[in-house]
Design a protein that fits this description.
The complex is a heterodimer of chains A (117) and B (108). By secondary structure, chain A is mainly beta. Helix content of chain A is 0%, strand content 56%. Chain A is built from no helices and eleven strands. The radius of gyration of chain A is 13 Å and the shape is globular. By secondary structure, chain B is mainly beta. Helices cover 0% and strands 45% of the residues of chain B. Chain B has strands spanning 9-12, 18-23, 33-37, 44-47, 61-66, 69-74, 83-91, 96-99, 103-107. In chain B, strands 1, 3, 4, 7, 8 and 9 form a six-stranded mixed β-sheet that branches. In chain B, strands 2-6-5 form a three-stranded antiparallel β-sheet, with no helix packed on it. In chain B, a hairpin with a 2-residue loop joins strand 5 and strand 6. Chain B is globular and about 40 Å long. Chain B starts with 8 loop residues before the first strand and ends with a strand. Classes of the chains: A mainly beta (117), B mainly beta (108). Chain A binds chain B through residues 35, 37, 44-47, 50, 59, 61-62, 95, 102-105, 107-110, and chain B through 1, 31, 33, 35, 37, 42-45, 48-49, 54, 84, 86, 88, 90, 95-102.
Chain lengths: 117, 108
């Protein structure tokens, strides 16, 4: 079965960096685009970024463009999110999610990132 | 940027029908997907491409999309349907994924 397991979350000071990982299993990772979606405490879902199946195309939400970088290692079935210049408003649960023709069909359980000021 | 508008909350009695709207400019020209999220859990897909149901999702869940409004309908509502529901589209012009603001469904 499809499994997506995020890691790398934690507490970080404003202005610092953090790298999230998502280990994928149960499907052919290199065939699917992948997303990061976040959810601030008590708030709704906010899309962060998407990367194509081969890593050649990447798109970002305006709120993170220039600060966050999505990448993947298909040889290790792993998705990444490098987050730089973090701000308190980046505090959220970050979900790794699988794309199926521009919809999300599977989600991980999420990893919490807390940015302190 | 493209905005999807949902009512913050919908209340419904057990056995009745809940309708959750998702408003957007000419949303009828886009494919709309719906997600259910229960407290402390990751979202799950309940409707895709406006009206298709993934395997395992009850037939009580249905969707429609026309003009400026997409609608998720839950028939014969059960207590287990209490959750937040989000609509989602892909904006082809800006290559962005957009979620609606979310609707909390409360079963009375």
């Amino acid at each position: 079965q499809v499994q997506l397991v995020e890691s790398g979350g934690g507490v970080v000071q404003s202005g610092r960096s953090l790298r999230l990982s998502c280990a994928a299993s149960g499907f052919t990772f290199s065939n699917f685009a992948m997303h990061w979606v976040r959810q601030a405490p008590g708030k709704g879902l906010e899309w962060v970024a998407v990367i194509s199946y081969d890593g050649s195309h990447k798109y970002y939400a305006d709120s993170v463009k220039g600060r966050f970088t999505i990448s993947r290692d298909n040889s290790k079935n792993t998705l990444f999110l490098q987050m730089n210049s973090l701000r308190p408003e980046d505090t959220a649960v970050y979900y790794c999610a699988r794309d199926r023709q521009l919809l999300i069909d599977y989600w991980g359980q999420g990893t919490l990132v807390t940015v302190s000021s | 940027s493209y905005v999807l508008t949902q009512p913050p909350s919908v209340s419904v009695a057990p056995g009745k029908t809940a309708s959750i709207t998702c408003g957007g400019n000419n949303i009828g020209n886009k494919s709309v997907h719906w997600y259910q999220q229960k407290p402390g859990q990751a979202p799950i897909l309940v409707i895709y491409y406006d009206s298709d149901r993934p395997s395992g999702i009850p037939e009580r869940f249905s969707g429609s999309n026309s003009g400026n409004t997409a609608t998720l309908t839950i028939s014969r509502v059960e207590a287990g349907d209490e959750a937040d529901y989000y609509c989602q589209v892909w904006t082809g012009t800006s290559d962005h994924c957009v979620f609606g603001s979310g609707t909390t469904v409360t079963v009375l």
